[in-house]
Design a protein that fits this description.
single chain; alpha+beta; Sulfite Oxidase, Chain A, domain 2; 2 domains; 19% strand; elongated
Amino acid sequence: MRRFRSPSARVTNNQLFVALLVTFATGAGAEATGSERGRWVLIGHGLAAAAVIMLIPWKTRVVRAGVRRHRIGRWASLTLAALVIVTLLLGLGYTTGVFRSIGGVATMWLHVAVALALVPLLLWHVITRWARPRRTDVSRRNLLRAVVIGAGATTAYVALAGAITLLSLPGARRRFTGSYETASFQPRDLPNVIWLNDTTPTVDPAAWRLTVVDGRGERQLKLADLPRTTWRATLDCTSGWYSDQDWSGVPLSTLIGDTSGGRSVYVHSITGYWVRLPLADLDHLLLATHVGGSELSPGHGYPLRLVAPHRRGYWWVKWVDRIEVDPKPWWWQSPFPLT
């Protein structure tokens, strides 16, 4: 039988670069998706990560050769390799549920933080070690190798998922987004998470007003003006947990009656935080004043917060003071909030 020879360093580096790009892209998508139809992004993320692992033996040979040459910047390259491995280990620990937090910090956040930290090093490495693909790279041997890596990554992904289920590890109970259940129907224990630099404001309910702007003009409402209905919805946070709760408040469709000239609905917080959502979501959005039958706490958005089923937690604007039919499309905003 013909021996399967090791491919060149150039091919290894390029394939690893592509695998890392797909891993980053699907990782960002995994943080954004909140509906079942986005499950494929999570699967793609797992497969891409498995492909990176499959390439480690080949990349190790390249690293050894580079270290022997004593290149300038080799320590930066070794740091990059170490960060990649740490990111993979954190992802594996979170996926299996073996360690969901380290030192009180959610493993998911550490996984994301380390992944972001390696980006500058990865860009530097690509620029200084760039190996332009050649026509000869598309050879039968290299194509066969790509197939082997893809098949191995798929096998590893399926095997890990099966092992998690068979061993009844905590990861077997994750939601399709990868999040773990926390404090469902126990609003007092619901985590109080704030996006980036927001802080919990002090709101005087007597002075607070909700400004509503639609095709009929602008008007202001008091808390007492808001009728209440109850919806059951899942809050799924990007830090790795989800919680099912009964939210009570007023549907946005009740407040916004004329959407003429609009392409999105703009939801603004007292803190300055805001999001735009598609007008098509209008019938599925609620402005909640209560959770689990109790008034919202200040940390959970008192006096009013948005409930956006099938969207991740950063869409659920807290301390809402303004909703507006907006002529801009909903996608005219950063994929992830910047503040």
